[in-house]
Amino acid sequence: MVMNDGRYAPAGSLIGLVQRGRGLGARMAAEDPAAAAELVHGCIRWDWRWDSVDQRALYLARLVRDLELPLGPVAEGLGAGEESSERAARVLALLALDGSGEAREVLRAYVGEGEHWVAALEEMARRWPVEWWDDLEEMARERLGDRGRAELWADPWHRWGAGRAASGERAPGAEAVGGGRQRRVAEVAGGPRGVG
To answer: Which residues lie within the region annotated Disordered (predicted)?
Structure first.
């Protein structure tokens, strides 16, 4: 059973190791993938990190891949609330980059129907080649309508000429930063780049 009360399980237990993103947890999980499946899926759904710099998406994506776990429970996380959705989107985006066509299609479909689709689309744009998501522009613009454009900073909005990125308006705090660093400030405001 996965603990979701916000506290870490004991450090030496399988669940405690997986919660903390430890390599020993991955090795122990590999001994019995079926038993570890609920733990891994639970760690994608609930967040035990103490702060946002502690990233686990790559660790969890590797566990899903290496243990050959089904993507269904990860995809279900897309609809389980904003934070869970963002964690699931990160893991699915990484799995797609690793060659999972299923993960790629799940995220693309979510942009058309999911509640937290903007964050998922921005995650795709952060990690994937442009040709994997650029054709979603029309659908995204249709879903967005006139609402929320002021908060759109990151790709794909910049590429598509939508939101604040299109207006030439600077990201909060960009005024104090000179030269080529302005783009980086805007990227940070939109979220971290690179693999988990």
So the answer is: 164-196
Q: What does the block give as tokens for 181? A: 């660093």
As a whole number of angstroms, the distance between CA 174 and CA 45 comes to: 34
pTM attached to this predicted model: 0.76
Give which of 56, 8, 13 is closest to 196, Cα–Cα: 56
Distance between CA atoms of residues 57 and 96, nearest Å: 13
Q: Residue-wise over 51-67: b if at least 16 C-beta within 10 A, else e?
A: eeeeebbbbbbbbbbeb
Kindly report the number of other CB atoms within 10 A of residue 7's CB atom: 8
More confident residue, 166 or 44: 44
What pLDDT, in 10s, does the model give residues 130-149? 999 999 999 998 888 766 56
Token pair recorded at residue 141? 């613009």
Count the alpha carbons within 13 Å of 82 in the hemisphere toward its beta carbon.
2
Distance CA 29, CA 69 (A): 11
Local structure of residue 135 (DSSP, 8 states): G
Output the CA torsion 132→139→167→120 (10° steps).
Answer: -60
